[in-house]
Amino acid sequence: MNPRSHPRQGAPVTADGRTPGENVLCPGPVMDIALAPGADENGLAVMLSQLVRQNLETNPHKMPDFEALSGVIAIVAEDAEVALTLCFDRGDLRIHDGVLGVPDVVIYGTSDTIMALSNMPLNRQGLPIPRRDDKAGQELVRSVFRALFRRQFRIEGMLFHLPMLMHLTKVMSVNG
User: N or C: which end of the chain has fewer CB within 10 A?
Assistant: First the structure.
């Protein structure tokens, strides 16, 4: 395999044509999801790292969305007074405790609303549009949009980083 045909453009390649960390028995890039020092004491950070890892392992078709993510997203659960920062770098994810620097996107909400996003029903394009027969999905979408309109759930930077949020939604949702 030469560097030009490697699935992760610009990734360093070893002498035998692999990227560092690539599994020899199962070729292809290995996702790297890690908690930064101190984040292991943040319950929300631990849950989100497990959620992302499990979603990608059980739904490999989500890998292109994960690999497309490049940027910094902070999540603040106001009711639990906990925050974390997701640092994506095209197939790598580092989760930090607290808000680091100036993120591209900041998501504010209650811990329940933030965790409910993982159950958001998605259509093929990754939009939160439930099927007609999915009553629970319809109610979930209504409750999230209600919180959005009441400013109990806010997303700063959404308009400037809409593609990033679309990829994040697909990666985080257990649906789709």
Answer: N
Tokens of 105: 């996107």
Which pLDDT tens digit goes with each residue over 74-119?
A: 999 999 999 999 999 999 999 999 999 999 999 999 998 998 888 8
pTM confidence score: 0.79
Contacts of 104 (CB under 8 A, 6+ apart): 71, 72, 73, 157, 160, 161, 164
Of the options 3.10.50.40, 3.30.1050.10, 3.30.470.20, 3.20.10.10, the CATH number for the domain spanning 26-172: 3.30.1050.10
Torsional sign, CA 39, 44, 50, 55: negative
Q: For the chain, which ranges sit under pLDDT 70?
A: 1-31, 176
Place of tokens 């993510």: 69
Largest CA distance in the chain: 56
Summarize the chain as % helix, strand, coil (round to 5).
Answer: 40, 20, 45
